[in-house]
Design goal:
The radius of gyration is 16 Å and the shape is elongated. It is α+β, with helices and mostly antiparallel strands.
Length: 140
């Protein structure tokens, strides 16, 4: 898959998140019908994990995630279990950074996405998908 569809998807996610904060999307069950058909998104705080190379820290892997729930009930569970979801994302990020990341080359976002999706879905089966909205690796 080329970078153009991924870039388009990231643009759509960013555009969707800009006018409506994630908290409002999660609270869409209270008024005016159509709450079940809407998006149920949970934006996570930025995550930074060390990149370990040859027994030393060679950089930092930084990423921001937005998690989409399958329905409002799953969104409510995700909100209540946010610390567990974050812990799964950090653990998966540390493992990815240890095995597959370098501060000197581009991050393989497809592999990181798969690792994060698998880890977070194991904690909460109501996760429809994990969206990486920002990623980068830096030296230091």
């Amino acid at each position: 898959m080329s970078g153009r569809p991924k870039l388009a998807m990231l643009f759509l996610v960013a555009a969707a998140l800009s006018p409506v904060p994630a908290g409002r999307a999660l609270a869409s069950g209270g008024g005016g019908g159509g709450g079940a058909a809407g998006l149920h998104l949970l934006a996570m705080d930025p995550i930074a994990v060390p990149i370990i190379d040859a027994d030393r820290v060679s950089g930092t892997l930084n990423f921001k995630l937005v998690v989409e729930a399958t329905d409002a009930a799953a969104a409510q569970r995700m909100t209540e279990n946010l610390p567990a979801l974050r812990m799964a994302a950090i653990a998966s990020g540390v493992e990815f950074a240890r095995l597959d990341a370098s501060a000197l080359r581009a991050v393989n976002v497809a592999d990181l996405d798969k690792a994060l999706t698998d880890a977070i879905h194991a904690v909460e089966p109501g996760v429809a998908r994990v969206l990486i909205v920002e990623v980068g690796a830096s030296q230091g």
